[in-house]
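[job 4417] fold queue: 2 targets
>>> target A
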Amino acid sequence: MERMNIKYRIGGFDLTQFVPTWDGLEECENFDIKSGVDFAYNFEQNVIKNILNIEFSHKQKTALKIQLCTFVAISEDSVASLEKDGKISFPADFLAQCASFGHGALRGIMYLKTMNTPLEGIILPPVVYGEMFKKPVMFERKTVE
């Protein structure tokens, strides 16, 4: 598969959920981690949104729930090369790159927001998103009637 040269810039981050629930949680280092990754695309603004959902729990008790949205603005010429017949397709390696932006930012956010709390030592492990995404993702322009 040929790699595409997509021109983009990070448009911002939105921490839509950060809910620590450590009341009654004993100090521990072994957390179970559930995670989810999703994408959305805004055709009017040429922005792909990566949504990361992370939940840390211990003994089936939630310790921390996080949702971070990362916005990546795609250049007009890249959109023109990717869009056809009202559909736009992003290659797997580009999706992995977008997810990595959010993941890295989230690690820093967690460090700052858990300082001097019972969750101070909690670590979001690195993820190799390139191994996770194998297929391109296509978005279709919706028409409102």
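>>> target B
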Amino acid sequence: MDTSEYNKIKQEILNLPVIYREVEPKEIVALGDNFYNIVNTEVYVDPGVAGRIDSYLGIKNNQTRMAYDSYGEKGLTNLRNFFGQAKNENDSKLVLVANTHSKQIVSAVPIKQSVILPHAFFDFAEMFMDKNQYIPEKMEYNMGPVDSISLIMRPVKEKFMEFAKGDEFLFNGLYFRWTPGEIALGNYYIRLVCSNGQTQTSQNAISKIAAPTIENFHKLLELNADSDPIKRNVEKMLESAKQSMNTKASVRELGAAVNILKQQHVNDEDANQIIPYLETKNLYKDAGYEVDTEHMALAKSNKTVWELYNMLTYFATHNKVWSPQDIKRTNLMESSMNFLLRKRDIVEHYDIF
């Protein structure tokens, strides 16, 4: 990505007909199934946004289903208003994202302190890159309501490290993740796969701010690739990578990888083609083993955790289904890194004999 492409995508985002409005729980009054009076304005929201509002108020999916099945639309309305009135005003607020052309609410995002607008994010990101000698490498965003942006930054002075024979990666990349309530700074790694010249990316959050204050921005400005938190992240990733190369993934972990794909709207059939979960599980079933979750945590697959991790990151980086700027790529890479760093079902030790 060169400067002109970065500026083009940035302007596309800033020119979208979108406004962001903070609301408190008592300003959200349910009128019917997905109809609300919000700050004295009656609006309809789609079920996905209504679900986010429910989650913010502390209402679970099974509670909404039970209320609707038992008492109909009126019961669901009363449930939502009860939780709205009961929620503590000192808790997090909610940012509603509205399209000014369609006059519809297109997203709802909980925030801890105050809303951070996209232009403030871009201003800060450009200050950070100038100060720390980074250039924009890639930008991804939510293609609908624009309630999430990922800006990947490549260092002017690149540093590479070998963590296995013939396998090295650029380790001093960084990225910003913006939502209306938060800016997160994280590590960005590019693994160089010598056999085919491809790259794979992974991300890992370091620090977050929840309000656009001078103090918060200054805290992030001081972080760079030589900062202790970033170095610790690199060390932790390296340790997990080396262990994962020598550790067989359990069948349950194959299932967890499939679920990571499905969270980004990859359908079940495609997810199981990428990760052979059902195929492996059925092999154990045909052999007479119990295939519940507990037993599958003890059952080895024919994949290492490292192979599994790279299947996920390869799809995130190279699939042709999503557009190059689709935020689902970043979502999947973040979830893949969390999967790599988590405690393993099957622990195996290094062996040089």
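[job 4417] complete. Note on B: Residues 194-200 have pLDDT under 50 and may be disordered.
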